[in-house]
Write a sequence for this structure.
């Protein structure tokens, strides 16, 4: 099940350097609107409904958390940035760039400013043929037909010719060169949300910590001294089993594994929560387990200041977390930083996300990807 919206945009240009216009448009959409995860081939198509130079057209698949109306507003800004001036003149016109929102999940939207699916898509080869390249598992929610079925019955007889392939912006960050990436961060840093998004965008297999299933966690936040040891032992056992199982099971349909924790976090938390004698016992067992565990090819630590962490914790509203103190979060952060300093054979990247909101702001998500890209180069 996809957590993000799946959006199809159609792009066209018949003025100036058409190829450059379209590639710039794709890149800007990826930077400012959402993750461009698929791009069709580039087609040359005759002008539709008026006499003019031929168009270049393509389609792309976008993953985003934004609403359809917000996406429309954003792509209009992209058009304007590329030099499109919309006039009140009726009818079809030549244009340096044109972006249409064709599909938004399986939704039907019929408002004054937006109609989805695009009401004319079934009558336009320059829309249908590029969308076919995206190989979507999608059926028109009104006409109840697939893209291939719509192509078979379209009244449009215009010839659309493939010109060339187009670059997919997401390929510039080849995360699939890693087998296993671990994202870490303090409580409330947003690592799980980020892992979900990266896995969807880059076709990764997620390994997510099963903290919600731990019966000792709510008890621990009420009485730390009493429940710290059983909590840490149960976490260690569960993390060991989960990572052992998931890392051993290669998924032919996924390019890499991305996790929202690394097993060493067990020791970081245990050092903070356990009494000295409990910690010694715990450490002996941990050292045995740790030797057997595969290390991530890339370890990313999301640093966030304590004030933001407390805001995030309050916002997500888990009852048992609401009394977490700033001093506890600071101890955890210091534990992570000490661990990172001590690691000589781990490929570590620290990203400061204190002033970033990569859930609501796509630019902040792109910032994180660019930091990873720098690490790759």
């Amino acid at each position: 099940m996809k957590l993000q919206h799946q959006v199809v945009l159609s792009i066209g240009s018949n003025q100036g350097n058409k190829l450059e216009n379209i590639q710039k448009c794709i890149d800007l959409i990826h930077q400012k609107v959402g993750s461009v995860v698929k791009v069709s081939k580039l087609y040359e198509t005759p002008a539709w409904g008026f006499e003019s130079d031929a168009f270049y057209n393509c389609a792309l698949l976008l993953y985003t958390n934004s609403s359809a109306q917000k996406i429309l507003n954003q792509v209009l800004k992209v058009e304007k940035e590329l030099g499109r001036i919309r006039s009140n003149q009726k009818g079809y016109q030549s244009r340096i760039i044109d972006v249409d929102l064709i599909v938004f999940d399986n939704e039907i939207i019929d408002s004054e400013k937006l109609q989805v699916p695009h009401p004319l898509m079934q009558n336009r080869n320059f829309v249908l043929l590029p969308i076919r390249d995206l190989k979507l598992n999608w059926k028109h929610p009104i006409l109840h037909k697939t893209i291939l079925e719509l192509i078979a019955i379209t009244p449009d007889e215009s010839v659309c010719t493939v010109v060339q392939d187009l670059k997919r912006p997401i390929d510039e960050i080849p995360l699939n060169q890693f087998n296993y990436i671990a994202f870490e961060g303090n409580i409330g840093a947003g690592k799980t949300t980020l892992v979900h998004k990266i896995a969807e965008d880059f076709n990764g297999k997620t390994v997510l910590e099963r903290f919600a299933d731990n019966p000792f966690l709510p008890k621990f936040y009420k009485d730390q001294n009493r429940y710290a040891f059983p909590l840490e032992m149960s976490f260690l056992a569960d993390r060991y089993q989960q990572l052992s199982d998931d890392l051993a099971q290669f998924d032919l349909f996924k390019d890499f594994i991305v996790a929202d924790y690394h097993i060493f976090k067990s020791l970081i938390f245990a050092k903070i929560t356990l009494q000295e004698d409990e910690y010694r016992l715990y450490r002996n067992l941990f050292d045995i387990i740790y030797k057997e565990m595969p290390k991530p090819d890339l370890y990313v630590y999301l640093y966030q200041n304590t004030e933001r962490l407390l805001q995030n914790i309050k916002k997500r509203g888990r009852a048992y977390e609401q009394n977490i103190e700033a001093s506890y979060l600071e101890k955890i952060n210091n534990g992570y930083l000490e661990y990172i300093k001590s690691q000589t054979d781990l490929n570590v990247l620290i990203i400061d996300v204190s002033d970033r909101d990569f859930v609501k702001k796509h630019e902040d998500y792109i910032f994180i990807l660019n930091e990873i890209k720098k690490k790759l180069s």
